[in-house]
Design brief:
The chain is of the alpha/beta class. The protein folds into two domains: 12-197 and 292-362, 3-Layer(aba) Sandwich (Rossmann fold); 199-287, Rna Polymerase Sigma Factor, Chain: A (Orthogonal Bundle), CATH 1.10.1740. Helices cover 35% and strands 18% of the residues. It has helices at 141-155, 168-179, 198-216, 220-235, 238-244, 261-274, 277-289, 314-324, 341-344, 346-362; strands at 46-59, 63-76, 81-85, 122-126, 162-166, 187-190, 250-252, 255-257, 301-307, 328-334. Strands 1-2-4-3-5-6-9-10 form an eight-stranded mixed sheet, with helices on both faces. It has a two-stranded antiparallel sheet with strand order 7-8. The longest helix is centred in the middle third of the chain and has 19 residues, at 198-216. The chain is globular and about 65 Å long. The termini are far apart.
Amino acid sequence: MSFIDPTPRFADSSESFPSSVHDAAAPVAVPFADASFPCAAPATADTASRGRITVTLPMRHAGTRSLDLAWELRGAAGAPVVFVAGGISAHRHVAASATFAEPGWADHLVGEARALDPARVQVLAFDFIGADGALDAPIDTTDQADAVAALLDALGIARLHAFVGYSYGALVGLQFAARHPQRLRALVAVSGAHRAHPYAAAWRALQRKALALGELQCADSQGLSLARQFAMLSYRTPEEFSERFDAAPVVVNGQVRVAAEDYLDAAGARYVARTSVTAWRRLSESIDLHRVDPATIRVPTTVVAVEGDRLVPLADAVTLLEGLGPAGQLRVLRSAYGHDAFLKETDRIDAVLATALHKTGDKA
């Protein structure tokens, strides 16, 4: 088995963006009229566009800030708009397209015959606030949700057909549903709950201490790499490590080295190559700042939990469901991949999305 790692964040210096909301040839997203979910592909073509907007946002912990939002929209003009958000390593490029051929962070979840088929829906995503490392201040998931609303305003999108969030993106989706219910018909929250579990928060606190130790030694990259390696242990499960790395330790240059170290070192190196220290710290903190009262969410919500997820335990998903009341339903997956199941169990996740999106269309 191989680890499907999100691709590097794009360096904006390699792209050309005008100062206006849209790229020069970018089509404007057409707001989705409240009609049933389409069963046949619209006549218009699958196109993709990127752009940037600048918004003034009152942030929960950082005061009012002027922020740049980088977005990407893909799909047939006039089709329902689905906002997709992933973990803190995710970005606006969800999947490769004819226009932007680079691999996306969720290529296997977008495509022909998938629930997120660009012939039937428009997939909208953005780079999280703080993902570029330019904002060194506490960032709340409420800030991210309000930024999504500001982006919809700028693009002329009155209402989303659905918000699909994975991990951190699920936290943002829950806040968006609570704060902007009139902008959303349905939410799918995968591996995310109404609060950070204390055990998971402790994991992240230790990761941030590893980062701080690296900074004290003028070894920022090494600190970030070590933090990422700790994170990998929390994303995956002992069962997977038992299957993949059940080999005897070896002695190299007088030091004992265990079987998983090459994998962890490679994961740390890939992450350092694409992530700023400031961005990682502030988004890691943002997960722990997250709190939302499930009772404030009245949007139809599908909660997807994974047995064995050490960061978002099944018990928290059940508590979230109970708070949602009639608005919620729970789907539980069994997977050796733990918190990372949404990146690996793509067929099963797609089946959940297909059910949730079509139910939304039926209720129009």
